[in-house]
Amino acid sequence: MVVESVSVLDFRNLATCEVELGPGLNLLWGPNGAGKTNLLEATYLALAGRSCRTRDDREAIAFGCSLARSEAVVESSGRRRNFLCSVTRAEGRRQLVDGQAAGPDSAALRPPLAVFMPDRLALVKGPPAARRSHLDGFCAALWPARAEARRRYSRALAQRNALLGRIRAGSAGPGALEAWDRELASAGVELIADRGRALELLAPAFERSASALDLGPVPALRYRPRSTAAEPAQLAAELAERRDGDVARGYTGWGPHLDDVALEADGRALRRYGSQGQQRAALLALLFAERRALLDDGRPAPLMLLDDVTSELDADHRRLLVEHLADDGGQALITATEPGHLPAPAPRREIALRGGHPLQPTPAATPEARAEREAA
Ligand SMILES: Nc1ncnc2c1ncn2[C@@H]1O[C@H](COP(=O)(O)OP(=O)(O)OP(=O)(O)O)[C@@H](O)[C@H]1O
Ligand SMILES: [Mg+2]
After folding, report:
1. For ligand 1, what atom is nearest to the CA of residue 68?
2. Were 70 and a residue from 46, 107, 222, 326 both cysteine, which residue would form a disulfide, CB within 3.0 to 4.6 Å?
3. Where in the chain is the domain with CATH 1.20.1050.90?
4. Neighbours of 143 (CB within 10 A)
5. pLDDT tens digits for 180-222?
6. 357 Cα to the center of ligand 1, angstroms
């Protein structure tokens, strides 16, 4: 699967911007404020149907405009599909695939997306919730059918917590907890098993990537579950043991909704002791490990959207990054303020941006090419 082109209209500072992408490395370069991060965000929006940067998509509508639009053409086995997402102030966002409203299956028609943006460092530096949901997202990409266990768990947890609140307030008796404990435990052990399996797949590839990037002691990636129950009965028993405490608190204090993923170097948490460069390297290594696991499973390589990855790296580490990026193949869109930030020998396509405009329209963006595409 290859994203062949992205066309953007009134998206942040990009008034009209159409770029053609190559199947390997694509370097998007230009001065600060040129619109590089905006173009990555627009690419994500077209394909995923939501922003990777903000919860409020309306933020992305260019000042003074009422609609923003981003469109991407994806080629897969000789077939082209058009992904379009528009955001209006009045109605919010809408995603279309080949002109039809996008459904839950449309994600399978485009490459998975791996995003590195500086604020995603929260995944390494922040609290466990971000790591849990990232891990669950990866499980869903690898085993789409397993996403249901995650949803069942969340529903059961919400119901159990609501009931705990009522018991605490005296408007319900503790007897009703039994049924929710069973439901929570049955979805919970599936979730624990999926997360454990996912981390077993990721850990070796993570260490290989981290050591290829060569930024300090090689970090390790480990699942840190609360409960290690393999059978629903065991998790249900653990929940039953803690019922009194749960009622006193009014929420469930045990189970996989409190799991964490440890990222450690020399046995110390990177979130506390890692340098900025080591934390970045760990996030990149995680994205590379996920790409490896998807490829090993026969899935399409993810489109890597890498914003500002080179800014804190010296020349040697930039070279290692690019070599590693090129190793497994697949498509990447990577931003830099200078073209020299990406070592030259790597085969790549360069797109220069200034003030929200590509400096040279790419061949795909010429009127002739567009007419040819429409005729085809
Ligand atoms: N809704 C919006 N409407 C118009 N312009 C916007 C909007 N949101 C952001 N911008 C502007 O877009 C410009 C480009 O932002 P962007 O983050 O893409 O730059 P960049 O090329 O990534 O720069 P840097 O190298 O500093 O990261 C900024 O000057 C910002 O003010
Ligand atoms: Mg930027």
Report:
1. 1
2. 46
3. 130-299
4. 14
5. 999 999 999 999 999 999 999 999 999 999 998 887 888 999 9
6. 12
* Mutational pocket test of ligand 1: of 13, 52, 312, the residue with most ligand atoms within 8 Å of the beta carbon: 13
Pairwise CA distance, residues 364 & 6, whole Å:
10
Backbone angles phi, psi at 193, to 5 degrees: -65, -45
Per-residue buried b or exposed e for 95-126, using 16+ beta carbons within 10 Å of the residue's own CB:
bbbeeeebeeebbebbbbbbbbbeebbebbbe
In whole angstroms, give the CA distance from residue 123 to residue 121.
5
Ligand 1 pocket, CB under 6 A: 12-13, 30, 32-38, 59-63, 308, 337
How would you classify the pairing of strands 303-306 and 113-116? parallel
* Paired sense of beta strands 220-224 and 260-265, if any: antiparallel
pTM over 0.85, yes/no: yes
Indicate the top mutation candidate among 12, 39, 357 to test ligand 1's pocket, ranked by most ligand atoms within 8 A of CB: 12
pLDDT digits (tens, 9 = 90+) for 308-334: 888 878 888 888 888 888 887 889 999
CA gyration radius for the chain?
23
Q: CATH 3.40.50.300 residue ranges in the chain?
A: 1-112+303-376
For ligand 1, the distance from its centroid to the CA atom of residue 25, given in whole angstroms, is 23
Predicted confidence band at 366 (pLDDT cuts at 50, 70, 90)? very low
Question: Measured in angstroms, how far is the CA atom of residue 320 from the centroid of ligand 2?
Answer: 22
Q: CA 26, 30, 35, 38 torsion: positive or negative?
A: positive
Q: How many alpha carbons lie under 13 Å from residue 230 in its C-beta half-sphere?
A: 2
**50: CA distance to ligand 1 center in Å?**
18
Check if CATH label 1.10.600.10 holds for domain 130-299: no
